[in-house]
Structure formats: structure tokens, C-alpha cells
Model the fold of this input.
Amino acid sequence: MRFFFVSLLITIELFSQVDYSKRDKLSREGISHYRKKDTIKLQKVTNALWDLYVNEKDSIALAKYYQFKAEGFQLKHSPDSSYYYHHESKNISVLTGDFEEAAKRLISIAFLQSEAKDFVGSEVSSIEGLNYLESIKSSSVYIDLSIIYNNLGIISDEFNQYEDALRYFNKALEINSKISSVWTKERGYMWIQNNIGRLYQRKNEHKKAIEYFKKGLNVEDVRQKRPSIYASLLENLAASSFLSGDKKNVLSNYMEVLKIRDSLNDRLICNTYVNIADYYKDQGRLRLAKANLKEALKNANEVHYNRTKIESLRKLAELTSGKKSKRYLKEYLKLNDSLLHKERSLKHQFAKIRYETDKKQQEIIRQKQQKLVGWLAAVIAFLGLGFTITIFVFRRRKLIYQTKLHEVLAREQERKQIAKALHDEVAGDLRLLHKKLEKSSLNEEANKLNAIKDNVRNLSHQLSSVPFEKVGFKDQLINLISDYFEPKFRIIIRGIENHDWSTVNDAVKRLLYLCIRESVQNSKKHAQATEVIVTFLVHKKNVFLNITDNGIGFDTKVRKKGIGLYNLRERVEELQGTFILESTVGVGTKTDIQIPLDV
Done:
């Protein structure tokens, strides 16, 4: 979580119009030029990556720029500068969340530290890279994981921690076996076998060492496919054979290695000359031994291989006498002191670079975190304001809803009183007047008055509130259906059983009831329907009512809706609901009603 917020900020850059194909092409070219040791072309790629970063703000291009700058200094034998730029590249990869690339840079850093004999630092860098890789659940990291475990094995070997070294090498072999590329898998297998053999060689267990060197050499077509690895395995096999007393094929093996290294322009040829010199010295052929040591010294100078240079000077001092011996010895002591001083200086420089870059990175993180905190504070304030407004709007809506419910209930009570007055008083008075007219033989007037009385009674029934206390909502609907049901007019109700209607406000239930009654009346009287389907659904504090019929339908753009439907729409919208009527001529009519149960 340490770099999360900064990663977020840098990742924003990646959403700009970055030319990924150009960056990837430059990366491939850079790797190729580095392997060919072409420093001029590598510098051109490095400059192009910098331009890509400046123009397009591509953070990954910046990480690649530092990587190839580091590798350029590596080819120029400037390990401190190489270390610095690898470290910069690693930090950017961490910030952009590219932990696989960060681990690759740490591998390069660990190798630089090993060459400077900073084995503690190399171990720390390797373990840091291991932590990044083990968080990635992908087969793409197997190669780097195997390399890191192999390097940890070499470091433990240097510390004479042989059990730990062997454990690391076996772990490297286990991971290497999972690599899908046969070429890469074989290459890793041979190097690890070579390193295990070297471990036993350092322990003077040469027979055991020879077993592992032979395992590597037994890989099919190893000499043709991988001459460099073949040369290392064969040279180590010859060295262990020589040291174990089996000197039969030692010289011929060394000569074969010498020929291969010469053809490959391999800088390790200087070590081969030293091994050949040891063989000739053992055979008493001192002139040839000195000649090979001089060749070793010459090649070591050319490739800046100081360890071999020191070894050659020491052995030349032993094989010569007089002024020559003193000159070699003096040069040996001077170079050895210089190298020890340089290694100590490099270790100090590596530690200083790491400290300074980490300190700078922490400062960048601190500044960007402060900026991010400012943005977050603004966002939180904005969200707080929005939340307050939302609460206010919600409470206002709830208050309006509750007010409307009270208004509906008040109107229902008023309707109930009007209905009672019409039924008990007006209709009663009309009934008495009707009887008087009949007695007076005014039959025509009596019949007209009787019709008026019936209309008043019907009006009183319509105005009367539907009581749900004694007769439940479901039973009221059953009674309604029974009133309208005929063999040629079917009414089907669905979903009414799926909810406890006793928890629903009476005003909502009455509105649903009236909607159904009005729709059923219209379907039977005007639409000439033979079937009406009523469907209920209660979901997320809303009740949904769908009413469809198979009647003749009508054109909603032409025909005006009746007063009954208009009144229903007003009542539904009054309770913050929605009322949608759709009809197609010859198909039928569909009514969709949604009423909130609460707000």
C-alpha cells in the first residue's frame, strides 16, 4: 500500500494518447543493441525513449530510458552509474505498478553488487525482487524467479553456506522446470547444474562436482546450440578432473574451450588461459605456463577482468625470479589494494545511491500524497455537501409523501361522509317522494324519480371508502372480480399472494383498487375485451401494477382519455407514482402503474 496513491497519480498519465507500439519497438531494439554491445545504437534508442517521455508523458518510457542508460554505463564498465540508473528505473516501475519490471531491474542491480563483491547488498536486492515477483500470479515470472533463486544460491556459496546454497539451487531447478520455452528451460537447467557443480568444486568434492557438470553436458546438441554454456561446463569438468588427479583429457578439453571462447570473443577466455597455465605448471612445462599467464593478463586487461588480472600477476610472480618477479609482485599488490579499495568504494557508493534515491523517492511520495490529500479533502467536502443535500431532499420528499397520504385520507373521510349523506338522506328523501308520486298515480314522474334515486345510490357507493379493516385487500379484489366476471369476460390476477398487504397503507390499497376497477370497467364496457390480466409486483419499496386486456384498443394520440382515467392519473402522481397507458388499435390496452410504499 506504500506507493498506492502515487501509483494512482502516475497511472493517470497512461490514459493519455501514448504510442505503445513505438515504445515497445524501441525496447526491443535496445535489448538487441545491448546484447550486441553496440553502445552507439543503444544511446540512440535511449535518447528516443527520453523524447517519447517528454512528448507523451509516458512513465513506462521513462523507466525504459533509465534502464538502457544503466546498461549503456554497464557496457562502459561504469558500475556506479549503471547501479544509479537501474535504481531509478526500478523506482518508476514500482510507482507505475509494474512489479515484474521492477524485479528485473533488481536482478541487474544484484549482479552489479555481486561483481563488486557486495554479496550482502546483492542478497538484499535479490530478496526484494523475489518479494515483487511472488506477488504476481503468472507463469511469465518463472524465468526471473529461477534467476533470482540461482543468484541466491551463488551468494550463499560465496558465504560458504552450502546447505542454503543447495536449497536455493534446487528451488531454481524446480521453477525452471515450469518454464514453457524449451530453449530457455534448457539454458537455465545447464547454468544451475554448472553452479551446483561449482559448489561441490569449492568444497573439494570433485567427484560430486563432475556428476553435475556432466548432467549439463548431457543436454542434447549443447555444443552446437549453446557453445558458451558448453564451454563453461567443459572447463569446470576439466578443472575438477585435474584437481581430482584424473589428468587424461584435461588439456584437450581446455584447448577445445579455448577455441570456442576465441570464436565467440568471450571475455572469459582469460580464465581459460589461467587454467591451461596451471596444467602446464603441474607438468613442469614452465615456459608454456608463463606464456599462457601472459595471454591471460593481456585479455584480462582488455576486458577489465581485474580478478583474473590479479591472479595472473600473482602466479607470474611465483613462476619468475629477480626483477621480473618483483615487478609482477609489485603490480599485483598495487592492483589488489586498488581493487579492494574500489570494491569498498563501490559498496559505499551503492549504499549512498540507494539511500539518496530512496530519500528522493520518499520526498516525491510525500509531496504527491500532500497534493492527493488536498484533492481528497475537497472531494470529501463536496461529497459531504452532496450527502447533506441528498438527506434534505429525501426528508422533504418523505414529508411531502406523508402530507399527501394525510390529504388522501382526509378526502376519503370526506367522501365517506358525502356518500353517507347521499345514501341515508338524499336517497331516503327521494324514496319517500317516489312513493307519494306512485300513490298520486303520477307513474311517469315516479319512474324518473326512481332512476334518479338509483343514480344517487350508485354515486354514494362509488364515493364510499373501501374499508380494509374488516375485509382484506385480497378479498376486496375477489369481490370486485366476482361482480364483473362473466363466462365471456375473464379476469386473472397474478402476484397478489407474494406480499403481506396488511403492511401497506390503506390509501395506497384504495388507489390500487380504484385503478383496477376503472380499468376493468373500461375493458368490459368500451374495449369489448374477453380477458383482463392484473399483475402485482412489490420490489424495493414500490408496488408495480400491470393491467392488460385483449380488447379493440384505441389510438392514444387521437382519442381523449375519459374523466375516470384522468382522475386516476392525478391520484397516482399525487402519491409520487407513475401512470403509463399504452394502447394499440386491434391489439389491446396496457396500463403500468408504480406507487411508492414509502419514501
